[in-house]
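Hi Y.,

Following your request, here is the sequence exactly as I used it, all 417 residues.
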Amino acid sequence: MMIKRHLFDDLKAHLSKKEISLIVGPRQAGKTTLMMLLLEHVRSQGKRTVAFNLDIESDHQFFESQEGLLRKITLELGASGGYVFIDEVQRKENAGLFLKGLYDMNLPYKFIVSGSGSLELKEKIHESLAGRKRIFELSTLDFIEFTNYKTDYRYEQNLPEFFALDPQKTQSLLEEYLSFGGYPRVVLEETVNEKRKIIAELYQSYLERDIAYLLGVQKTDRFTALARLMAAQIGQLANISEIANTLNINTATVNNYLWYLEKTFLLHKVTPYFRNMRKELTKTPVFYFYDLGMRNYALGAFGELVSPTEGGFLFQNFIHTLLRKKVENTSNQIHHWRTTNKAEVDFVLDKNTEVVPIEVKYRKLPVPAATRSFQNFVSAYHPSKGYVIHLGDAMHKAINSAPIYFMKWWQLMFEEL
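Below is the corresponding structure, written out as tokens. Let me know if you'd prefer a different format.
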């Protein structure tokens, strides 16, 4: 059974736009599969198409020059128009300038292009295509895509009701997702042993192909050690000097490696929230993984039962992913909050005109009780509301006249904050 992806409808809607449709995301997140589905959709409408994959050696000959590629496209589609699909475009040197030149010829062809995380690193393709492309980021499966597949799409139109009526199954699905993550090939495998083989292959491919290539080195020991270290401290303050000392490398190298980890869709950085408050720590970020399966494998914990302690960190990472989904295509930002007095709030949603504190608890709270740190934040910033995400029932209480909503975790996927 094919896994349905939310992004497919957005891509279909963009087919009528002249802009290049640029699909980016982690290796093996499903970009090629999505491209092929889009190709079949276009062909089913009687439109002419041509497809190239730069992971295939024989396709490279058509990309030696713009004129050469244009001749091939014209041969396949004619001069009246059609759809051009290019997969793994990051394999082309100066891909951004190459595509920019084609776009600026005002051709009658629509380009749909995909590339892995390294796309952002090679000759700054985004800048080259400024005003000429729309970016579609395909992540690994989110929890809704995962749940729909796991339940054979029986509840696709009424997932909130399914979650509410079957909390035991819902919790089981959450624990499976926290343990194995959302890489499509991992989700499709039935046994833990096969899932582990797939994630091992993905991890090694990431290190040996993307990172070794991008760093220009074959030995990635220090880089691998950093990935493992970051996996062990998700959601915790990342002190660059301490990390450098632990790995016996300089801080510049740590910062450089962290940048690569972000740009290749392994890590996401969350910066601190501050408004010139003297007691707060400044510029010390925390990091979360894009995919929990990859995080668990880096730490040697892939497929293991989720303990309450470890589950707390994984659940916090999971909630961060849900929050990131909510701020996509908005100017809203997600921060964390820490002070030198060790007061902390997991997330602060900065909505420009207001801030919303969000605390995460991997347990059922019997009563609506907020932590002292959360109360400190409310007292300092006077938000109009706040949230505590937990495993139990929906409740609410007021702190300094601000309503604080104790929300069932799955409600976060369906409600506005």
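The chain has two domains: 7-137, 145-417.

Thanks again,
Q.
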